[in-house]
Amino acid sequence: MTDLTSLGVKEIRDGVRAGSFTAREVAESFNTAVADAAALNTFIVTTPDHALAAADKVDAARAAGETLGAMAGVPIGMKDLFATNRVQTTAASHILEGFTPRYESTVSQKLWDAGAGMLGKLNLDQFAMGSSNETSYFGNVTSPWKKAGSNAAMSPGGSSGGSSSAVAARIAPAATGTDTGGSIRQPAAFTGICGIKPTYGRCSRWGVVAFASSLDQAGPMARSVEDCAIMLGAMAGFDPKDATSLQMDVPDWEAALNSDLRGKKVGIPREYRMEGTDQAILDSWEQGKAWLKDAGAEIVDVSLPHTKYALPAYYIVAPAEASSNLARYDGVRYGLRDLPDGVGLQDMYAATRAAGFGDEVKRRILIGTYVLSAGFYDAYYTQAQKIRALVARDFALAFEQCDVILAPTTPTASFPLGSMNEDPLTMYLNDVFAVPASLAGLPAMSVPATINANGLPLGLQLVGRPFDEQGVLNAGLAIQQRANFTAKPEKWW
Ligand code: GLN
Prior knowledge:
- The chain is of the alpha/beta class and 493 residues long.
- 37% of the residues lie in helices and 13% in strands.
- It has a domain at 4-262 and 473-483: Amidase signature (AS) enzymes (Alpha-Beta Complex), CATH 3.90.1300.10.
- It has helices at residues 9-18, 23-36, 48-63, 106-113, 161-168, 185-191, 225-235, 279-294, 307-325, 345-356, 359-372, 377-398, 424-428, 435-440, 469-483; strands spanning 43-46, 75-79, 117-122, 174-179, 194-197, 217-222, 265-269, 298-302, 404-408, 444-451, 457-464.
- It has an eight-stranded mixed sheet, with helices on both faces. Strands 1-3-2 form a three-stranded mixed sheet, sandwiched between helices.
- The site of glutamine has 14 residues, from loops.
- Glutamine is lined by residues 128-131, 158-159, 179-183, 211, 318, 431.
């Protein structure tokens, strides 16, 4: 029998439906693969029983002749930013260690309702702040990929690095991610998998630990465009519990997948040719243009003139919102409480926060508090909001000339763990191509394009009009069919 862990979402779902194997067999195979891959540190907790119970339910439903859901029999990894009922939810922070919600996030509930089960809670950068997975309280995740001729441990990207590593290593067929300023797309690019951040509001934020609420979006990470389409369909939908949830029907993205791009225009933003971008990335961008042309699209130049201000604006808006969102962790309601003998309430707040938050999180809280302070609000926060509006307007104007935008996902391939920690600004530059679409709330996807001279994956990014996930997925499919990306990491763990 084929190794079930080599299968993706669609293959598992279809195989379970057809009776080629049972959901339990699939869950058992992945549970074993997860247990064997402890060296990657992808999971903070594993939940083999959750995966098995969901699988048994699917097998019983099939035996009873019931219709099976879109994710029936697919065991997935859940980024540990989603609240999961009675399963520890930490955001990879010490301050939430031991926090076990008594409720389920809307997105995870939708996935269980569609027949998925959970392999465990995936490691991430602490509170989703980071680009390398090194800010987790529970230790960094390691990428399954190695640089040719080197044994250095590589970064799986961040913040959804547990998700990317697990999917690339074939210990989960798919995983949830969240993207505030690139955290689905950058790790997907680093590990040779697909990931899509939908239009802001498509997926409910209810029960997702908040980082920057006006930017946070959940999305799927999987090995193919089809798998992303299926899983996004299961995750998305209006939720009255999230005030920013889109009141729109969820299209059948899988059914409408079509890589024939005749009549479509693909925009190439000239401001994305930035200094410091690897030549191999620029080459793969050229290759991407050729692929989309081959699929029938017309390539047009577009301009996004405020691109260079997007990253600085993001690093004002995101920390500002984070400083406010993270005020709730005070030792009273969740997780950690540090109450030194004989001290008062204020001291408990301070001691808990000092002990509970990691350095990067503290840095963001300090920046956020500063830019929101009375003396600096207009100089920083108001300016950043104006930039945000201009970045969004750039895209709106560009989309008068094209249907989808093609750009690199990241300026470089993955890097060795520990090599980028000197200066936080170099780390922040990882998201220079990802952040503009986040500020504008647009759907954006990373698709694997090629392997560089060092044997590491490179991704291409597609950005679409608001609500046009279909256009993004279709262009992604056209690339996937031509890139024929079959490389996978060699097992060393
Ligand atoms: N790497 C970016 C940051 O550190 C984006 C993170 C994210 O999208 N969650 O803020």
